[in-house]
Model the fold of this input.
Amino acid sequence: MRLTSREQEIVNVIKKNPLISQDELAEIFDISRSSVAVHISNLMKKGIIRGKGYEFNEEPSITILGDCYLEINIDNKVESDSRIDIKYCGVPIEIGSIFTNYGIKPRVVTFLGNDDIADYFLNQLYGLEIDIANIFKHTSKRTSRCVKVNNDLTYRESLQWDDYLKAISTREWIIYNCDWLIHEYRFTDEKIRRALNKKTDNLPRFCTFKILDDIRDISDNLSYYSVVVLGIRAINDSTNIVNKLLELNSNSEQVFVITDGKSDIITISNNTINSFPLLPNQVFSIENKLSSFLAGLIYGILNNHPLRQAIRIAIGSI
Done:
């Protein structure tokens, strides 16, 4: 969780002297005792301190922002052997389950309707022991759903964009007060627009992913991002994408990844390009597993693993 400068100063003092009183903290920082109490309360809200005993939580704070939806996939490539599959999808479930497997409990901001599908997702998140206090549930609309024909999106029913923006606005505190913010790609420009109005030293590390069909879909705002994973149909089409990402690679902590999930993983970091060929047992579907790959990659990075090892963790998370 990102802290203000004063909160960080208080944390540093408490760590050196866990038995210090609020009166002593007030004297050290030349502020009122009530101001110290407010700072301590904020540290508890941010999950830095557990309870009044000044027990610290060193676990990185992660917030996941994205939709949950019902997907109906119709496969009729062969007329005599049509197949209809139904599955429950969504970034909060897919990424949240990866982090909980690693012992990290992320916070989730997602968007549900008032129906049985919403109840299913709530039960799934509850089963993962994920904090569901910040879920937006529309009282008069249905949870998002889509129909794909041969894996091509054909129909989609979802909330209006204004509904999403309203939900995000009322949950800005939880969205931005974290170490890592992982969200669906469609929120990229909106997240950066709002972030630029805030203090940059208190912003989380932004992360996102997308299956890229057109290089023009690469937002210039990705220059503000720490980790971005892009899925492409064929690795041979990556040259222009690599050049575009090199232009956006503004600092050494950024990691951009391009993969087709079948042959290769290309990374761009610190203006350096590396390639990691996929072995036959490492092949994965970018349509179904790109978000899981992102979650594993972030876990490797936040644990300070070298990029090569973080890529291995990402593959192992699929």
Remarks:
- The CA atoms of residues 9 and 32 lie 15 Å apart.
- Residues 179-318 form a domain with the UDP-N-acetylmuramoyl-L-alanine:D-glutamate ligase fold (CATH 3.40.1190.20).
